[in-house]
């Protein structure tokens, strides 16, 4: 996820936060030149229903839409044949979701300051308060959880800064195994706000269990810049969730860009989560 737009250095790394856990004004991650990504890879990314604007090559794969990691396996995985609805305004899930319900997903925190650990506990309590068949708990001390929260340090670039990133469930039905949170002071300041961190974690874990951005149809809605619009057919994502609104939802926890503060589940988010995991 990204924040909206990065202010001047004199502002001590204050952010216009419009993206939630993925991007800032355009995408959560810093803008990077795509010349090192082959045309074939860009075509595969587009075919999965993701924007190729500001796509970044990272060690684990390709970072798209500011906070979503696509691995090489994601790019070649065949469609499961789900009915896909592209570029409408309801909420969306990916083709893969977490299976074998009821299920407890363990969460660990590796080498991060205490406030990140406290924010993970807040995130877990928010999900568990919904009474889902998918629940979360902290992993045993010293053990790596099904989802491991780790840090990275990256400053702003191209007017944006990455707040965090994660991926989607595997084809076998396991949640994505890692959330990366930015420890750079430009992301959350030198004294990070617990509820803000919890909100970004909540968003990134939403990706881990299969949620796309609510404003998938046009990320300009939350990010404020020109949107990518219809991104085309997809194997991985954009399966519309019945019962979610047919107009943009300004408060959803899965908006592409953060508002810079505390954003938890709204009523429409609960409908979407209940549809998958209640």
Automatic annotation (TrEMBL):
Pfam families: Peptidase_M57. It comes from Pedobacter jeongneungensis. This is Dual-action HEIGH metallo-peptidase. Keywords: Signal. Residues 1-23 form the signal peptide. The keyword tRNA-binding does not apply. It comes from the Bacteria.
